[in-house]
Description:
Bound molecules: zinc ion
Largest sheet: 7 strands, antiparallel
CATH superfamily of the largest domain: Nucleic acid-binding proteins
Amino acid sequence: MASLIxxxxxxxxxxxxxRDEREEVKYEQALSEMAVRGLxxxxxxxxxxxxxxxDLARVVLDNPLDHLPHFDIAAFSKLRMRDPMYADQIRxxxxxxxxxxxxxxxxxxxxxxxxxLVLVTGIIVRASAVQPFITNAAYRCTSCGEMILMEQxxxxxxxxxxxxxxxxxxxxxxxPKESVFIDSQRISIQERPEELPAGQLPRSVNVExxxxxxxxxxxxxxxxxxGTL
Length: 229
Ligand SMILES: [Zn+2]
């Protein structure tokens, strides 16, 4: 697959044309039900995507961080056409996957999995409080009053380098009311006892949960989780 734009188009085609065993356009329907069900995520069965477009399924497994944002955009454009009011309300859709063809044992997670989409199963041993995570920070230039929006991707807050209006290089204040926040939570999941080799201590991994999947499970719960490393 040559470009990210092509993957956006290919994913749009998947939503519009994929039919399940009952000949229903399954994901068009899922989108049309999002508002009544109050959902912010479109959950895709990986085997459906694989059956429809093997190349697209492979690129998202190998390189989810580049391709998933474009799937999100494609799904959101479809939602905006169907239900502009709900689209305005939720502002973004998360495309999430389930039913990956193979599971990665926690103990085997290694360098070759970095940046890939994986399915892991384990027991939640710790869960942090839910905290706000800023996705779009709004700054006001204190020299001229210009508002500057900065998209945020990790825990280090990006600040403007220069005001596009007056060229000032300092004096930017964060305006929380104009910024966009989502919920964020950190959990640790640990190997299940039955997976543990004799005499070994259980391994665990930390996971960042964002937006609508925070607080859906508690310590002690067994979960299967599809995400990126
Ligand atoms: Zn300025």
